[in-house]
Amino acid sequence: MPLSRVVRYVLLWFLFASLSALLRAEPVEFDLPAQPLANALLAFSKQAKIEVLFSFDQLRKIQSIAVAGHYEPENALVHLLGDSGFTIRRDGKGKFVVTASRPLTGLVQGRFLAPDGSGAANARVTILETHQSTRTNDKGEFQFESVPPGTYRLTATHDGYQRLQVNHVTVTVGGALTLETQTLQKADELTRLDPLIVKGKAQPPRPFARSVDALPPRNSVGNIDLPRTENDALAYTIYDREQIMRSGVVGLNEFLQRSVLEGDAATPSPELNNDNSTSIPGGSGIKLRGFAEDETVVLVNGRRLPDVLTSASRTLGSDVNYIPLSLIQQIEVLPVSASALYSGNAVGGVINIVLRQDLEATEVNATYTN
């Protein structure tokens, strides 16, 4: 054999041995509990200090196998993947790449029958979340071959029959799910629903609770004292007790002027107005949407407060400063015209003050300035 060929073989053997030594890493102490495979690979990369490339969306719904103890990184990664349908390989830079070894879908099949027991042929079967659709054969059988893993709802429709829905259809990677045989009902028959029992337990109201349990019972005519929420048909704005106490105000009138965005914060309240012609005690001074004080209705637990009459030709809004802040559970503000609901002159809007129920307490507040 020529000397040059011998040297070439020696160099190739040395290169192969060096590459094998580089790829064979020292054992590492791993502590990887069973968890979503995407999270497990991130923890593996951190503990082994080796970069792993994978698709997070493909692996976040697959459960990994726990790995604990001394392992070479490659062996630990193989054990971590287990029977997930994924395999590993090394790229040219020594990084691990996780790829799918089989299709990442599952199979769903089943059968629908007509009321007489024959197969419901040509019924349309649809998976709502993936928008996959097919039709049953002459025997009423159907099959979806490529369904991503997950939990779905499946519906069956047919002319002259009621719509049938099957919930909690769980598909796994590489799995074949066979649904129970279902019978369609004619459209003119009544549908009997399974009984549903709902159980619940009321929690005691907390001092800063925003739940309905913390609100007082109804005591007014109609529905004007129903507890309102921010998601009602009308655009109510809700200020709860925690917001009121954190505002640092002393009186309710001051809180309304500061917090209600639709109000007139530039105009001082009557008791703070230095103009001798208007310095009249009482009244809230709230002007919703630019209307006068007497065009905003103020309620307490759904009951309307009287306006303050100062003269034969002038009235102020309702006086709210006599209500202690510690007695208020929440404030509901409706900054739209609501004369149809609350009657009278509620063209500016409505403010409903909801008081705390069954309150027996003594409260001392201290404030400071500067």
What does this structure look like?
With 370 residues, the chain is an alpha+beta fold. 17% of the residues lie in helices and 26% in strands. The strands form 6 sheets. A 5-stranded mixed sheet has the order 14-19-20-15-16. Helix 2 (37-48) packs antiparallel against helix 4. The longest helix is centred in the N-terminal third of the chain and has 21 residues, at 3-23. It is flat, with a radius of gyration of 36 Å. The N and C termini lie far apart (98 Å).
Task: Write a short abstract of this structure.
The chain is of the alpha+beta class. 17% of the residues lie in helices and 26% in strands.
CA-based shape: flat
Radius of gyration: 36 Å
State the major sheet.
Answer: 5 strands, mixed
Residue-averaged pLDDT: 76
Structural class of the secondary structure composition? alpha+beta
Residues in helices, as a percent range: 10-25%
Tally of DSSP helical segments: 7
As laid out across the biggest beta sheet, the strand order is: 14-19-20-15-16
* N-to-C CA distance: 98 Å
The total of beta strands comes to 20
Write the element-wise H/E pattern from the N-terminal end onward. HEHEHEHEEEEEEEEEEEHHEEEEEHE
Strand-residue proportion: 25-35%
Low-pLDDT regions: 16-23
Core attributes:
alpha+beta; 370 residues; 26% strand; 20 strands; 4-stranded mixed β-sheet; 17% helix; 5-stranded mixed β-sheet
Architecture blueprint of SSEs:
Elements: H1 3-23, E1 28-32, H2 37-48, E2 52-53, H3 56-59, E3 67-71, H4 73-81, E4 86-90, E5 96-100, E6 106-113, E7 124-127, E8 132-135, E9 141-147, E10 150-157, E11 164-171, E12 176-178, E13 182-183, E14 237-240, H5 241-246, H6 252-259, E15 296-300, E16 303-304, E17 308-309, E18 315-316, E19 328-334, H7 339-342, E20 349-355
Parallel strand pairs: 2-5, 6-12, 6-13, 15-20
Antiparallel strand pairs: 1-3, 4-5, 6-9, 7-8, 7-10, 10-11, 14-19, 15-16, 17-18, 19-20
